[in-house]
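seq as requested:
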Amino acid sequence: MNLKLFLAMTVLFCQFSYVTAQVDLSWKNPLNIPGKNLVHGQGWPALDYHRLPDEAENKVRKAVWNLSRHAAGVKLRFSTNAQEIKVRYVVSGRQEMPHMPATGVSGLDLYNREGDRWVWVRGSYSFGDTIQYNFPLKADNITLKNFDLYLPLYNEVTFLEIGVDEKSDFSFIAPGNDDLPVVVYGTSIAQGGCASRPGMAWTAILERMINKPMINLGFSGNGLLERPLIGYMATINSSLYVLDCLPNLVRNTFSEEEVTKRIIDSVRELKAKRPNTPILMVEHAGYTDEMVNKERKESYQNRNELSKAAFKKLIAEGVEELYYLEKDEIGLSMEGTVDGTHPTDLGMDQQARGYYSIVKEILD
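struct tokens:
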């Protein structure tokens, strides 16, 4: 046998083996199961992997609408005894950014959930026109387990399938109605910038800490306490509303009077529509370069002072179930950001822990 023929047969054999392996997989698309809403982390049904309903396109600014297509906080939950879980999917935007890796912008994260215990599952991945993740499960005993699959923080998912051995058991778990979600309205930091993977966004970390569903309405550069977004928040029956928009309200384009008005109007509107739902107002977590940048330090301090004054005014008016989280309680450290503003994984963990005590107190 000559060398060319040998190489051709080798390639053909490898291709045949690959196809055979693919045939053995059963691929599941949660959006193709009629009559069931199987996507978690959303305030409204039938959104695909998006975060605002279709009608919002004509009610919110274009930038907010485009960001609402990103799958931040959106996830799938399923049960399987497969020894390997594969995911293939397509995103519509750029896969990475200079200050945030592709694994955070466009990647996935898989966690095994057993009661109150969470175990991260390491996956291998390849990025291309179709992104692929492979999660091998090498435990001693492969039994039926529950998993949460977090979707990309800064990208729109246009197609997704999960593949397991066709002999394995597999079923999606639909969102339940027992636990009311925590709804977070915020900025790029709430959306997940700049976590290295979706499960390291502070909202996702906090979600696992409190074992409560979380809805992420973080809009990068566009968390501006706008009335349409407050109105949409109020349509979600929630256990807690979190207002964390001050990082986007430090610009010179917003006067002190306007910032104060937006804070007070947001709380009043939520309370008018959901009087019994607690609201948590959150201060600006600060800039970690404040020791060498007086202007940035003074900008966030000013907004925090306005926020505290607005909180005291609302309390004096008799607003009940209104809570406040201060900068020092958030605890973002000097090493906790990638650029002085956006948290690294360390900063995300610090933020989640800063939130945990007060959120647990409110929910308990």
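The radius of gyration is 22 Å.
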